[in-house]
Amino acid sequence: MNGGGSGEVWPTDPRQDPGEEIVDLVDGGNRIVGRATRRDVRGQNLLHRGVGILCLNPRDQVHVHRRTDTKDVFPGMYDMFVGGVVLSGETYDAAARREIAEELGIVELEPEYLFTHLYLGDRNRSWIQVYRVVWDGPVRLQPQEIVWGDWIEEEALHSMIGEKPFVPDGLEVYEHYLSWRGGPKYGRAGQV
């Protein structure tokens, strides 16, 4: 890990209440069946759509971050993906571009679609489209969502997974990613 972390803070509009965002609800086949507020989606663990973007640099380091303690799901935990809910009427691709711009300040790249993953956790249930970007520019962290971020070597990330609390949906999607790309698994205990 780099000692000081990477990324400057990127301010957003503090008046916006994310709980009031409207989200499409989907069924087991990922077909839209209704709409609800983000607050209801989280409170009732309703099946919805989400995106996860793995941000790598040209040295194959992964950008890892710690979520704020005020996040509506998995507060204070670490994640190797940036992402979030797909808003009602929004495409997955548009949501991926929006999330990486909001959370890391990356606006000059088109995220590369990798695969779709159904996550069915006890605090989050979503069809997640997974993307990847390779970025070597500045990272601007969004202070409402991220308190720390840094570029981490993959081997160090695998060790970190065994030592720090990581979001369970991100861990499951990361395992899928490692399998998808044919790389070594880290295992639940953080061991490669």
Order of helices and strands: EEEHEEEEHEEEEHH
**Fraction of helical residues:** 10-25%
In the CATH classification, which architecture applies? Alpha-Beta Complex
Mean pLDDT: 89
- Uncertain stretches: 1-15, 188-192
Number of continuous helical runs: 4
In angstroms, what separates the terminal alpha carbons?
A: 18 Å
Strand order in the largest sheet: 7-4-9-8
Total number of domains: 1
CATH class category label = Alpha Beta
Largest sheet: 4 strands, mixed
Could you please say which CATH topology applies here?
Nucleoside Triphosphate Pyrophosphohydrolase
Write a structural description.
- The protein has one domain (18-181): Nucleoside Triphosphate Pyrophosphohydrolase (Alpha-Beta Complex).
- The strands form 4 sheets. Strands 7-4-9-8 form a 4-stranded mixed sheet, with helices on both faces.
- Helices cover 23% and strands 33% of the residues.
- It is built from 4 helices and 11 strands; from the N terminus they run E-E-E-H-E-E-E-E-H-E-E-E-E-H-H.
- The chain has 192 residues and is an alpha+beta fold.
